[in-house]
Each structure stands twice: as C-alpha cells, then as structure tokens.
Amino acid sequence: TIIRRVDLAPEFKDFLSEPYGCLDKSAVRTAWGSPLRTSEPLVMPEPIGKTGGWDMYRLSGAGFGYIDLIYSYTKDFVVSGLVLRGAEDEA
After folding, report:
1. Longest Cα pair distance anywhere in the chain, in angstroms?
2. Could you give the CA distance from residue 59 to residue 26 in angstroms, rounded to a whole number?
3. From first to last of its 91 residues, what are the pLDDT tens digits of the chain?
4. Whole-Å CA distances, 5 to 2, 34, 81
5. Do 54 and 42 form a contact (C-beta atoms < 8 A)?
6. Contact status, residue 47 vs residue 5, Cβ threshold 8 Å
7. Per-position DSSP letters for 69-81, written without gaps between them
8. C-alpha angle with apex 34: 33 to 38, nearest 5 degrees?
C-alpha cells in the first residue's frame, strides 16, 4: 500500500526504483506498455469507495520466472498500491 485507504493498513513510505516507482496510471503505461489485464474504475464498499481500477503486467525472464505486477489506482489515477505475486498457470 502506497496510499492508505483503510485504517490500520500498512503503508509503504520509502522510494521505489525505476520502473516500479511510477506515480500515476500514465507513467505506469509509459514504463510498462499495454497491460496484460486491466480493470476499469469501480466503486468498492466503504471505506474504500471509488477506485481507478488496476493494471496487471507479467514479468518474466531475468531471473523472475513468471510474476504478475499489479498497480492499483485511486479515483484520480494516482498509484495507490502495487502487488507482486506468483503468476497463475494459464495452460
């Protein structure tokens, strides 16, 4: 979590190196290109409320194996969080 949207959620306050440290949706897409999957803005139950959706990219090679990188956005398309997770087998 980069921008806390739920009380008591941990919040990362350090610097992320390029290309991970993108600050908004436009910068994410400039750095990573077209997402593998995306979610349009949606409304979540309170306390989250309106969101800007998310974009998912697949990291592979360079020792990563298959990892999904997911950026989530506020309603103003500012990066609110990112997730690195093991990619699901799509075979």
Report:
1. 40
2. 19
3. 666 666 666 666 777 778 888 999 999 999 999 999 999 998 888 877 888 999 999 887 666 678 899 999 999 999 988 888 887 655 4
4. 9, 26, 10
5. no
6. yes
7. EEEEEETT-BEEE
8. 130
